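During the reporting period the student researcher (J.K.) took over the structure-prediction task from the postdoctoral fellow and processed the backlog of single-chain submissions. One of the processed entries is reproduced below for the supervisory committee.
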Amino acid sequence: MGSLNFILSKFDESIEAEFVGDIDYPIIGQFVVSVPDGVQIDTPVSNYTDLKSKKYAGIAAVYPDFPDQIWDEFDTATRIDTTLPDHKADVGKYEVMLKEVVGPNNGRITTTAQAMGYVPTELIILWSVYKLTRTVNAQGGIDISYEELDSTEIDVEVSVDGGGSWDTATYATLVTPTVPGSSFVARFTNTNSEERYVGYYSMLYRP
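J.K. obtained the following structure tokens:
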């Protein structure tokens, strides 16, 4: 994969490294901000806040016909509805882990509703998926490795009527809502027998 990945410290959110493609060292005490393929970032990037601002400005520039955007880097749980009965995820400061399938239960998060300001006719949504592998190193400690996965590793659904009806989304592909509305909700579901992590989403829309 050719995504641009920034590695940041969980201690002070400083930018520690930058990779195009795979990250080739353990990320203990660090987290990753992935920038979608084809998105240009204005450099230099000074800090985490600046990185997020430039990332989502870069995404918007790729889709100039979609003037509005709702996004979440999932670095807080404020926009995740953890009270829902089908919520099956571990939500941390920089990681949202969709639990592996146990019996009939899938790992899932659903976002809280976000006001869109008008009824959109079309939208596009981008997201990232990754897994973390933990291995014992030669010193007996645990190394945590990051691996970016294809967007199809999780199922994504979107709603513009506050979660009353859902449309299946494909990465960076037009969605025409079947039921109109102006209250956006997204749902991310893991149907794998392993944990999956969702890194961010960006939803662009137009009237």
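The committee noted the following: The chain has a mean pLDDT of 94.
J.K. will present the remaining backlog at the next meeting.
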